[in-house]
Design brief:
Blueprint lengths: L2 E8 L2 E11 L4 H11 L8 E6 L5 E6 L12 E2 L15 E6 L5 E11 L10 E6 L14 H9 L18 E3 L5 E3 H5 L2
Parallel strand pairs: 4-5
Antiparallel strand pairs: 1-2, 1-7, 2-8, 3-4, 3-6, 6-7, 9-10
C-alpha cells in the first residue's frame, strides 16, 4: 500500500510547516484530523479542502458536510473520499480551510510517494515540524513550553564566541584600534 507524504504550510508563513505521512486509501477526514493534531488545534469548527493547482487556485471542494450553497457540482465528502482518488499530479496541491470565522488557511503539497509502509506504524502520522505554529485562539498560550522548546532549539552552544559562564563579567572594552581598557580607564574619557 502506498504512503503519501504531504507538507502542510501555514498560509501566513511558509517557513512554518508540518510534514505528515498518510496511506493513499485513507480519507480526507483522516488528513483533516492529522493536520489539526500537527498544529495543535481543536476539532470544534468546520473545515473544507479544495483540490488545487500550482497557482493555488481552488478547484473541486472536499467538505466535511454539504453546506447551504449554490453549487455547480456538489462537494465531495471528506469521510467518503480517499486521498488517492484526488491525486491528479505528482506534485498535487490542496488548500485546507479550518474555522471559517477565523479563516485558518493551510497550503498542502504532495512531496513524496513512499512505496512501502512500516507495518508497526499507525498512519497518519506527523514526521516533521518546522517553525512555531499559530495559536488557534490568540497569543496567550504561546508563552508555554512551545516557546521554551523553540528557544532551546536555537540556543547557542556554551562554547560559542561571546558567551562566558553564567555570572562571569568581562570588564574590558576594546577601542577601534584594538587597545583594551578596563571600566576605570574607560570612565576617564
Amino acid at each position: 500500500m502506498a504512503l503519501l507524504k504531504f507538507r502542510i504550510y501555514w498560509e501566513e508563513d511558509e517557513a512554518t510547516y508540518r510534514d505528515v505521512v498518510i496511506r493513499h486509501k485513507q480519507t480526507f477526514e483522516d488528513l483533516h484530523s492529522i493536520i489539526l493534531k500537527a498544529y495543535e488545534f481543536d476539532s470544534k469548527h468546520q473545515a473544507t479542502f479544495y483540490r488545487s493547482n500550482d497557482f493555488w487556485q481552488r478547484g473541486r471542494e472536499i467538505s466535511k458536510e454539504i453546506y447551504e450553497k449554490s453549487y455547480k457540482a456538489p462537494p465531495l465528502l471528506m469521510s467518503e473520499t480517499s486521498i488517492g482518488t484526488e491525486i491528479k499530479d505528482p506534485n498535487q496541491k490542496f488548500i485546507y480551510q479550518y474555522d471559517f470565522l477565523k479563516g485558518w488557511t493551510f497550503l498542502i503539497e504532495l512531496i513524496q510517494v513512499i512505496k512501502e509502509e512500516d507495518p508497526k506504524t499507525d498512519y497518519p502520522l506527523v514526521v516533521r515540524k518546522e517553525g512555531l505554529g499559530p495559536s488557534q485562539y490568540g497569543t496567550k498560550d504561546m508563552v508555554t513550553s512551545k516557546l521554551t522548546e523553540m528557544e532551546e532549539k536555537y540556543d547557542l552552544q556554551s562554547d560559542a564566541e561571546g558567551y562566558g559562564e553564567e555570572g562571569e563579567e568581562d570588564d574590558t572594552d576594546t577601542s577601534a584600534d584594538g587597545e583594551q581598557f578596563s571600566d576605570d580607564q574607560e570612565d576617564a574619557f
